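During the reporting period the student researcher (J.K.) took over the structure-prediction task from the postdoctoral fellow and processed the backlog of single-chain submissions. One of the processed entries is reproduced below for the supervisory committee.
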Amino acid sequence: MLIDTAHVDPPTQSTSDEPPSRVFPDHRALRRDEFWRGIPAYAKVSEEEFRTHTFQNRHTVTNPRQLKETLGALAPEGFYEDLQAALDHAPMALRISPYLLGLIDWRDPLHDPIRTQFLPLRSQQQPDHPLLQLDSLHEQEDSPVPGLTHRYPDKALFLPQLSCPVYCRFCTRSYAVGNDTPEVEKLALTTSLARWEQAFAYIASQPDLEDIVISGGDSYNLKADHLQLIGERLLKMPNIRRIRYATKGLCVMPQKILSDHAWTDALTRVAELGRSLHKDVVVHTHFNHPAEITSITQDAMNVLVERGIHVRCQTVLQRTVNDDPATMTQLVRRLSYVNVHPYYVYMHDMVPGVEDLRTPLATAQKLEKYVRGATAGFNTPAFVLDAPGGGGKRDVHSPERYDRATGISVFTSPSVKPGKQFLYFDPLHSLSEDQRQRWTIPAERRAMIDAALGKS
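J.K. obtained the following structure tokens:
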């Protein structure tokens, strides 16, 4: 039956949420200028040189002194002091590529979304929630052999090495990834064939395992022959149907796809082997803001598309970076435009040192409503929370209970760990002053948790 919508009264129920913006910047307007020339140290760098992974690796910045030498007068002296003070209290070491430095708006670095993710400032850091944990997802507890996490019945996470081309200050694996910091002595996992053989033997012994995520660290930092070795060993196991190479690289150093031909060719050979065996080989990457996607990103993606390599994106929801409807919608549409499939938007994990980036669960619930319907359903990401304590990924709309006042949400995961309840805690800065005070008192803290678990 057809309905004449011209004669249907609109609903009159109001909502307390602000209306979504209808004016979005063009998601197809990718940067094509020589943006890096605004950085004093790169002012004379040609496009040909800047588009190589060798230049990016050679000039990657790893400490405030190098950053000052690179930026010159672009940032005031106080900025470097603020950065150093933050690094003294951060779980992740500093490592940032020339590509990302060139994309930061140095006219307003305090509010720039790319700077926010990679260069911490002590003046912006918030006190940690009292229940934060370094390994908040309990990956080590679900590790049957070193460097392998087996939580879901048919999927495992393999960590062949623990370095990255760039270090995100919000890394969920900051207990292991990167160099030691004043705050964290990292878990030691050797990059060795002997350790890998342990992982291969375990995977082969588990007939229910079908899906392996190869992460780290970052797959970008695997040598080409190692990338191919791992992929071929897994694909040739009868039980394995799917492998995923996880890398932040397309966001932070797309030049590698364009200039490291040995690495890109190795990835291509693994994908071709997968197709010949009727198995799935994909790349999982990680963009958080539309400004991270440029014409160089598109050129790198075009190479992968031409080679039949599919790429999915796992975004992290972050306060002041992408926690508004316009930014998140533009990100999703821009990803789709360059043929990156928006797969997940994660709630920020409860790791130390980055409380300024966390949002309450309610923010993710609101954003999902705005993003859904803004583009095709197959390009609409699922908004999920990786339940602290090893509960796995849960839809943000699926808590058993959610108390907005205390900030406690309760999730169950019957297919992963039946009978258990998993708690997520909103950041204290999102709560009222009275509730923040309650969290400083152990007895009150226990009472709030007991109430959330239905024990009181």
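The committee noted the following: DSSP finds 16 helices and twelve strands in the chain.
J.K. will present the remaining backlog at the next meeting.
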